[in-house]
Every structure is written in structure tokens, then in C-alpha cells.
Amino acid sequence: PKCWAVVPAAGVGKRMQADRPKQYLPLAGKTVIEHTLSRLLASGAFQKVAVAISVEDPYWPELEISKHPDVITAPGGKERADSVLSALKALQGKACEDDWVLVHDAARPCLTASDIQLQIDTLQNDAVGGILALSSHDTLKHVDGDTITATIDRKHVWRALTPQMFKYGMLRDALQQTEGNPAVTDEASALEIMGYQPKIVEGRPENIKITRPEDLALAQFYMEQQA
Ligand code: CTP
Ligand code: MG
């Protein structure tokens, strides 16, 4: 089966409190989304990269990479899951039901080719697929209001990153059937609701999601280390 990439990039970046969506902020010489897309394209792993872009986004058409022959643009949706489903639909007729799709946040520019390769190598013979994830170094507390009710066994708790790698047809169906469900905050949760059991592949802590202003400086630091 072939591999396709889907990049949700239609968020407004509210927590970033910047003058534009965070995927268009400058980072090490280009915008965040240009780093993300060029890394996906340079990996050589994907037939095409389908990017979900907000319909009134004035920044995207200004970027050279929006015209790249292997980049397909799809209209973004209300929630991240809607944007992902829209990008999947743009691959209809190109991707086969059984092909793999790796969904990766535009806001995670520090992804490396080895992250992608490890994930594909680990999951390519799996029936469902799975996600990059990180263990937690901190002790984790279950809390009710401001009171600790339990200490959670760390070995059972992982932090979900992207890429999230699933079968094209299975992921599309799962997102379609869970449309509007607020519990669907990533691809794996949609598959879980459908009764599947996605796998985890251990990722790297450098694969951060740019969320708050200080994350840009951290991403810059990681990129300097990678260079
Ligand atoms: N995203 C999207 N469509 C949406 C919401 C989010 O494509 N309706 C994308 C974002 O552009 C981002 C990724 O999903 O690349 C992860 O979402 P998040 O980090 O929450 O980004 P924002 O929603 O833009 O940020 P915030 O939640 O702070 O507003
Ligand atoms: Mg958001």
C-alpha cells in the first residue's frame, strides 16, 4: 500500500495570541507551515500531501509551497477533525481504501524523516495503525476540583503526538461516523470510538506542537540542534 500525508492547517491559533494563525509565524527563516510541509515532502514517503486550509486564509496563496505539484489544498472545517476529513475527501479517487494516511499537524514543524520512517516501518503490517506518542516524566494525578483523588500509573498513560497513521478507508469512515463528537480530538480517538485498538510508537519530545508564544523559541532551538 502507498502512503499519503494529510496536514490540518486551518486553525486560528487562539492560544498563540499572535496577529496571524501560528502556522504562518516566522521560524528559522521561513514560516512554521513551510518547515512542516518541506519536511513531509523531503521524506519521499508520500504520494501527495493534502493540506486543509481555511477558506478565507490570505497567507496560504502567498507561499511558494502552495503551488508545489505534490501539494493538494482542501477547505478547512470547524474543528480539526472536520479539516482532516475534508483533506481525506480531496484524496478520494487517488488513495486506495487500504493505503496508509499519516495525519500531521501543521503546527509541528520539528518532525524528522526518521520519525516518519520509524512509524511506517513499525506499523506497516498492522491491521489498524497507530500514533507517535510520548511517555510522561512527571508523576500524574487524577484530580477532582483542586483535590487529588488518585495517582495514575504512568506506564498506562501516553501523550498523543502526530503523525497519526491509519488506513485511508477506515479513517475516513471513522471520522464520518463520529462527526461532531467533541471527544474526537485526534484521529486515534475516532478509531477507538469505532472499537479499534490503535498502537503507539514512541516519538521524540522535540516533535512539539507550537501552541503558546514560548514554543517558537523552543522549536528554533531544536531546529538549530538538528541542523
Ligand atoms: N486545525 C485545523 N482546523 C481546525 C482547527 C485546527 O486544521 N478547525 C489544525 C491547526 O491549524 C493545527 C492543528 O490542527 O495545525 C492542531 O490544532 P491546534 O494546535 O489546536 O491549533 P489551533 O486550533 O489553530 O490553535 P488554538 O487551539 O490555540 O486556537
Ligand atoms: Mg485548536
Automatic annotation (TrEMBL):
One of its GO terms (molecular function) is 2-C-methyl-D-erythritol 4-phosphate cytidylyltransferase activity. The record marks R15, K22 as: Transition state stabilizer. Pathway: Isoprenoid biosynthesis; isopentenyl diphosphate biosynthesis via DXP pathway; isopentenyl diphosphate from 1-deoxy-D-xylulose 5-phosphate: step 2/6. Gene3D superfamilies: Spore Coat Polysaccharide Biosynthesis Protein SpsA, Chain A. The keyword Nucleotidyltransferase applies. Pfam families: IspD. It catalyses: 2-C-methyl-D-erythritol 4-phosphate + CTP + H(+) = 4-CDP-2-C-methyl-D-erythritol + diphosphate. Its EC number is 2.7.7.60. InterPro entries: IspD (IPR001228), IspD/TarI (IPR034683), IspD/TarI_cytidylyltransf_bact (IPR050088), ISPD_synthase_CS (IPR018294), Nucleotide-diphossugar_trans (IPR029044). The record marks R154, K209 as: Positions MEP for the nucleophilic attack. Catalyzes the formation of 4-diphosphocytidyl-2-C-methyl-D-erythritol from CTP and 2-C-methyl-D-erythritol 4-phosphate (MEP). Belongs to the IspD/TarI cytidylyltransferase family. IspD subfamily. This is 2-C-methyl-D-erythritol 4-phosphate cytidylyltransferase. It comes from Methylomonas aurea. The lineage of its organism: Bacteria, Pseudomonadati, Pseudomonadota, Gammaproteobacteria, Methylococcales. The gene is ispD.
